[in-house]
């Protein structure tokens, strides 16, 4: 899938033609990060970052004590990718990817939702422990759950 920041300086392709999972997170951290009612995360197997000359990184501790690396475009500030060193999946921010099928999105942290959740959507009041996308990366290693990458 094609992805880019708002100004177009950072462009990249995802490693697979569709995400392993797509989350719409209503937690307060994602609301602050997105300056909106929710944040979106498309989960992909870990891949090489786009041109790091064009990226800056904000780091923060997660509630589980992991370090979360939040990459954004140096020019326009668009948040693009979240990753953690102990995970072999990454979270690509959904708004920067062309052609996502939002009907498959899983709504998490709905207890903090500021907008109605579409009827019929899969929902979780906090995080999802969903494991049906578990598979293997290109080296045959099992894929991690995104955990704190989405909330």
UniProtKB/TrEMBL annotation:
Residues 121-132 have a biased composition (Basic and acidic residues). Residues 119-151 are annotated as: Disordered. PROSITE patterns: CENP_V_GFA. The keyword Repeat does not apply. Keywords: Lyase, Metal-binding, Zinc. Pfam families: GFA. Gene3D superfamilies: glutathione-dependent formaldehyde- activating enzyme (gfa). Residues 1-110 form the CENP-V/GFA domain. Belongs to the Gfa family. This is CENP-V/GFA domain-containing protein. It comes from Humicola insolens.
